[in-house]
Amino acid sequence: MKFKHFIKYVDDIVYKQFFNFMFFVGTRPGEALALKFSDIQGNYVRINKSRSNHKNREIGTTKNFSSNRLVQIDKVLVRDLNDLHDYYIKKYGFDYDFIVFGGMKPLSPTTINRHKIDACKKANIRPITLHQFRHSHATLLISKNIMINEVSRRLGHSKTSTTLDIYTHTDLTQEKRAINTLNSLRYNFFETLVYNFKNLISSILKR
């Protein structure tokens, strides 16, 4: 998996957990950057706001009503986010409702991009966009046969059709299997037709 290779080359703990979160939770970048630790309750994350990508990076509402959601996260990510919180306490010398990805202030999109590009270069893979983490999260779940309505809910889509339109594409392997199946059906049908025709001629000649 390309992500596993990529993440090995992200050295900074804050950026590493940001990219981990994007991949394993599938949020929009603005939703991740708006999170505070008070939004994390046990192994659930409440997503109900988003940070703009403009210079002042103001916090506003999510994209739509369906984007307000409660998403369960895996136990390894829970542990890593707790470690990140402890890191901030040691760094700043006090406990606080820190911004999850940044501490006292959110990460800069420009700096995020720089860390991402640096890691891609070190990993010798093509540069990836932040949206591709979300895309990978969705396609991974779909490939594992997770029901589309659950994938759609996790992504914050208002309709499952949106998820299907964006994240399901023609798989050439599946396409090849489909055409082989059809060819096989046609071949078997033709064989059966010839066999029945020969039997019919044989029975006529015997009369």
What does this structure look like?
This protein has helices spanning 2-7, 13-25, 29-33, 75-92, 109-123, 131-143, 148-155, 160-167, 172-206, and strands spanning 40-41, 44-47, 50-51, 59-60, 69-72. It has 207 residues and is mainly α. Helix 2 packs across helix 6 (131-143) and helix 7 (148-155) crosses helix 8. The model has no long low-confidence stretch (mean pLDDT 84).
Please give the CATH architecture of the largest domain: Orthogonal Bundle
Globally, the shape reads elongated
Total discrete domains: 2
Sequence of secondary-structure elements: HHHEEEEEHHHHHH
Taking the alpha carbons of the first and last residues, their distance comes to 68 Å
Sheet with most strands: strand arrangement: 1-2-5
Q: Residue share in helices? A: 55-70%
CATH homology-level superfamily of the largest domain: Intergrase catalytic core
Summarize the topology.
Blueprint: H1 2-7, H2 13-25, H3 29-33, E1 40-41, E2 44-47, E3 50-51, E4 59-60, E5 69-72, H4 75-92, H5 109-123, H6 131-143, H7 148-155, H8 160-167, H9 172-206
Antiparallel strand pairs: 1-2, 2-5, 3-4
List its salient traits:
mainly alpha; hpI Integrase, Chain A; two-stranded antiparallel ribbon
Concise overview:
The chain is mostly helical and 207 residues long. The chain has helices spanning 2-7, 13-25, 29-33, 75-92, 109-123, 131-143, 148-155, 160-167, 172-206, and strands spanning 40-41, 44-47, 50-51, 59-60, 69-72.
